Amino acid sequence: MALLTVENLGIDIHGIRPLDGVSFSVDKGEILGIVGESGSGKSLTALSVIGLLPLIGGRILRGSIRFDGIDLATLPEAEFRRLRGRRIAFITQNPMTSLDPVMRIGAQIDQVSMLHLGLDARAAQARSIEIMAQLRIPEAATIYHHFPHQLSGGMKQRIVIAMALAADPDLIIADEPTTALDVTIQAQIVDLLVELVRERDVALILITHDMGVVAQTCDRVVVLYAGRVAESDAVAAIFERPRHPYTRALIGCIPRDETAHGNLTGIPGAVPSVAHYPAGCRFHPRCPRRGAPCDHIVPVSAAMDGGLFACHFPENSGVAR
Amino acid sequence: MTAATAPHDHFWLTFRRSLAGKVLLTPKGGVAGAYLLVLVLIALTAPWITPYPFDQQALPLANRPPSLANWLGTDEFGRDVLSRIMYGARTSLSVSVTAISVSVLVGMALGAAAGYFGGMFDRGVTAAVDLSWSFPEILIALILVAIIGPGLHSTMLAIAIAYLAQFTRLTRAQIMGLKGETYIEATLSLGASHGHVVFRHLMPNALAPVIVCGMLATGDAIILEATLGFFGLGAQPPVPSWGAMMSSGSALIFTAPWIIVFPGLAVAITVVMINLFGDALIRALDIRANLREG
């Protein structure tokens, strides 16, 4: 039994249904990538798992989220709060805005361990400085007393990661942790996260729109499109033989050496908005392989060689177009 | 030489960068700060430093113009105007500062709760705020004093309630803007309670504009207190207040103008200084820049 298993998750936000039948699982020591373009439901999936959907007026409509034997979909808020930060930690998208501007960063890390581990101020400070040092923050004891505006973006993201680690969680959800950072810093942060998973044996859900990052770091990957799972598989397998045309298109978007002398590849069109999801397969208006059933029959998820995909005309599967 | 001056330089640098330094080292903030400091000291030490007791009457010496013995003249009972103005600072400052402090505290609590939780409570608070917003503060204060009865404490209460809407509305708006910030979501995602989020994160971030607004409202409150005193609704005789002094001087405005002019100047200068200090505070806190960044 995996540490976290999400099955057939559907949510409702003020009458719209941005997630429809999302399933995945992640275990300790494993990195699961959730990929997709903006608007595909990645962040909403994260919010569902962390139980913060009510914050944006949403609720879980159906499906289950099982974390270590606990059903998070029906867990009362008071109990969920004890879990948040303690066993499931969340790393937000933009480190520039994820820290309270008027609170010293040390105090912000301290509050997590004081809240969840019951440490006193002195023990919390010692713990925070230790974690900061582990995250290779130079002069941690000095930085501890700084305010967020005195730090660079990469350093802020390390502080956000330190906050996530402060109570020693089992599962970390990182929502595009590198999107707002310089390219040079991105690699450092990603490496840091990978190292954490291997050393501490935690589960990591890495939400990203960058297939390149997935290829470098993840063990398995879930490709989301318009609130549904297009395909999920081990990373090696998905890069070797993508079945869903959308997966192939995403992989095609990774810049390569030969791109230097040509144009970057894109996917024509955009993810449809929640209010205007097309019938049938939601990718069909942008799909190069679409056929007769695609615009009115929703493809069912099919399993093949350990992977799952939802497509009428999958690639690399012997199904003729 | 350099080694000896280093600690002093360090202190100077720290001061210059601190909020107090940023306020007091500007011309406005420095002058206003010095004036307010002297005024507070006078108010605190009035019983020991006034040239005469505030209630020492000497009818033969009534309505004397300013002289060496009575720098600002004497009133219709022969009491020293300067001594009474110094005592009046006690009344004026204590009433306005207490009233505005209460108003800020209650207004922040109401505004934060309304802004953060929303719903019916928010609608109720907003309706009450809008209702009281549509009356001038002076009218609200007059009605309240009429209900509770005149006196120092009812003046404080009336002023506190008259300014409540302002701070409630300001705090509510601040909190509503701040609660969408990523760091609030981040804090919640780490298991913080709503109380923790409101008191440790939202309130401190919303504080700066409320402090400035409170500072400026203190100036208005001094005028309001003087107005209530002028109508005989504030501090009751023989406790001196600037408003009451002007009221008694109004009958003698042509024969002994100093009785009304000097307390009036005290009110005017104090309010101007508080406003200058507030201006300096706005610049030092860089509130507009803060609001721009969210």
Automatic annotation (TrEMBL), chain A:
Q: What PROSITE patterns does UniProt report for this protein, alphabetically?
A: ABC_TRANSPORTER_1, ABC_TRANSPORTER_2
GO BP: any one term: peptide transport
Record has Plastid as a keyword: no
State whether keyword Metal-binding applies: no
| Sorted UniProt keywords | ATP-binding, Cell membrane, Membrane, Nucleotide-binding, Transport
Sequence ranges assigned to domain ABC transporter in this UniProt record? 4-251
GO cellular component: a single term? plasma membrane
Q: Which Gene3D superfamilies match?
A: P-loop containing nucleotide triphosphate hydrolases (3.40.50.300)
Look up the domain of life of the source.
Bacteria
Tell me how this protein sits in the membrane: Peripheral membrane protein
Any one GO MF term held by the record is: ATP binding
Pfam families listed in its UniProt record: ABC_tran, oligo_HPY
CDD domains xref list: ABC_NikE_OppD_transporters
Q: Which InterPro entries match?
A: AAA+_ATPase, ABC_Ni/Peptide_Import, ABC_transporter-like_ATP-bd, ABC_transporter-like_CS, Oligopep_ABC_C, P-loop_NTPase
Q: Where in the cell is it found?
A: Cell inner membrane
| Principal localisation | membrane
What family does this chain come from, according to its entry? Belongs to the ABC transporter superfamily.
Protein name as catalogued: Peptide/nickel transport system ATP-binding protein/dipeptide transport system ATP-binding protein
From TrEMBL, chain B:
What Gene3D superfamilies does its record include?
Answer: MetI-like
Looking at the record, the residues that make up the ABC transmembrane type-1 domain are 89-278
Record field: transmembrane: 32-54, 93-118, 138-165, 206-231, 251-278
Q: How does it sit in the membrane?
A: Multi-pass membrane protein
**InterPro entries per the record?**
BP-dependent_transpt_permease, MetI-like, MetI-like_sf, OppC_N
This protein's UniProt keywords: Cell membrane, Membrane, Peptide transport, Protein transport, Transmembrane, Transmembrane helix, Transport
Q: Report whether Transmembrane shows up as a keyword of the record.
A: yes
PROSITE patterns attached to this UniProt entry? ABC_TM1 (PS50928)
**Major place of residence:** membrane
Provide GO CC annotations from the record. plasma membrane
Q: Where in the cell is it found?
A: Cell membrane
GO BP: peptide transport; protein transport; transmembrane transport
By sequence similarity, the record places it as follows: Belongs to the binding-protein-dependent transport system permease family.
The protein in question is named Peptide/nickel transport system permease protein
Specify the species: Dongia mobilis
